[in-house]
């Protein structure tokens, strides 16, 4: 502590020796520190309620495409009201332009209302169906429609693989499952399947189908969690993947039956404190 006090005293004297007080030095640091620029471009989630009529989906998405937006996902589903559908659109853009597109959507005669859930408290979910290989990433069981079409290997890669096999460069304990006996494939498939089940349990997913060489996992979670699950299961070998897109629904406005509605409204109207003048932490 003594060395710390001595260091602080010397710094204070050096500032005073230069003709600048400590208060002026701190003020200069605060006001001259550049603040992070705030951008209005972020993810927007729009819930569009429309009549169930042919062609309305094309017109609604065409309005967003006309403004140069690349729509991340579109989810259309029925509601509890017959003839009324809900379309959840997820786009990335500026606030002002998205609001203009929202007004154009509301001008369509088939559209009842468009709700912007970007700044609201919502529950977001996305469903993922992913088919993973249980024999390894190098063994892709592409029989029929069991995997997404992939580009075939180049002739040079095939020749290189053949040379490695001919020269015996493969490790002795590395089993080539493509030419192994069926019982060896079953044993290796069971080992990898147990690892996949453990990962699925950690993410709250479940294995919904199991085959001799692959399995299908279902996950219902936020989009960020779905991305993480796909990255962590990529080493097993992803044969096929399908994502439903983001679905969103606003949370309940009333959290307690014992609170006064006026108190909740006053809490919402209270402005957030301005922290831009504070020094960086």
Molecular structure report:
With 281 residues, this protein is of the alpha+beta class. Helices cover 37% and strands 25% of the residues. It contains eight helices and nine strands. The strands form two sheets. Strands 5, 6, 7, 8 and 9 form a five-stranded antiparallel beta sheet that branches. Strands 2-3-1-4 form a four-stranded antiparallel beta sheet, covered by helices on one side. A hairpin with a 3-residue loop joins strand 6 and strand 7. Helix 6 packs antiparallel against helix 7.
In short:
With 281 residues, the protein is of the alpha+beta class.
Q: What series of H and E elements makes up the topology?
A: HHEHEEHEEHHEEHEEH
Largest sheet: 5 strands, antiparallel
**Helical coverage, percent range:** 25-40%
Mean pLDDT: 75
Give me the Rg, rounded. Answer: 29 Å
Termini Cα gap: 23 Å
Strand fraction: 15-25%
Structural class: alpha+beta
Low-confidence stretches: 1-16, 169-173
**Number of continuous helical runs:** 8
Q: Compute the number of strand runs.
A: 9
Shape: extended
Write the layout of secondary structure elements.
Blueprint: H1 2-17, H2 22-32, E1 41-51, H3 56-66, E2 73-78, E3 84-94, H4 95-106, E4 111-116, E5 122-133, H5 155-167, H6 182-203, E6 206-210, E7 214-221, H7 223-233, E8 238-243, E9 247-250, H8 261-269
Antiparallel strand pairs: 1-3, 1-4, 2-3, 5-7, 5-8, 5-9, 6-7
């Amino acid at each position: 502590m003594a060395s710390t006090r001595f260091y602080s005293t010397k710094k204070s004297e050096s500032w005073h020796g230069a003709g600048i007080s400590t208060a002026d030095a701190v003020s200069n640091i605060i006001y001259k520190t550049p603040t992070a620029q705030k951008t209005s471009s972020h993810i927007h989630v729009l819930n569009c309620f429309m009549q169930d009529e042919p062609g309305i989906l094309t017109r609604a998405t065409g309005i967003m495409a006309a403004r140069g937006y690349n729509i991340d996902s579109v989810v259309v589903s029925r509601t509890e009201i017959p003839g009324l559908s809900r379309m959840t659109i997820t786009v990335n853009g500026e606030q002002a332009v998205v609001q203009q597109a929202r007004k154009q959507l509301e001008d369509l005669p088939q559209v009842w209302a468009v709700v912007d859930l970007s700044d609201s408290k919502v529950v977001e979910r996305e469903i993922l169906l992913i088919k993973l290989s249980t024999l390894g990433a190098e063994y892709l069981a592409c029989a029929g429609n069991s995997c997404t079409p992939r580009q075939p290997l180049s002739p040079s890669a095939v020749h290189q693989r053949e040379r490695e096999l001919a020269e015996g460069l493969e490790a002795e304990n590395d089993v080539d499952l493509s030419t192994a006996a069926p019982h060896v494939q079953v044993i290796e498939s069971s080992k990898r399947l147990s690892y996949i089940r453990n990962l699925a349990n950690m993410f709250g997913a479940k294995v919904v189908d199991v085959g001799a060489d692959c399995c299908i996992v279902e996950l219902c979670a936020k989009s960020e969690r779905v991305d993480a699950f796909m990255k962590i299961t990529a080493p097993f070998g992803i044969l096929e993947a399908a994502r439903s897109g983001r679905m969103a629904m606003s949370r309940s406005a009333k959290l307690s039956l014992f609170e006064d509605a006026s108190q909740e409204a006053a809490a919402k109207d209270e402005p957030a404190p301005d922290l831009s003048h504070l020094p960086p932490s």
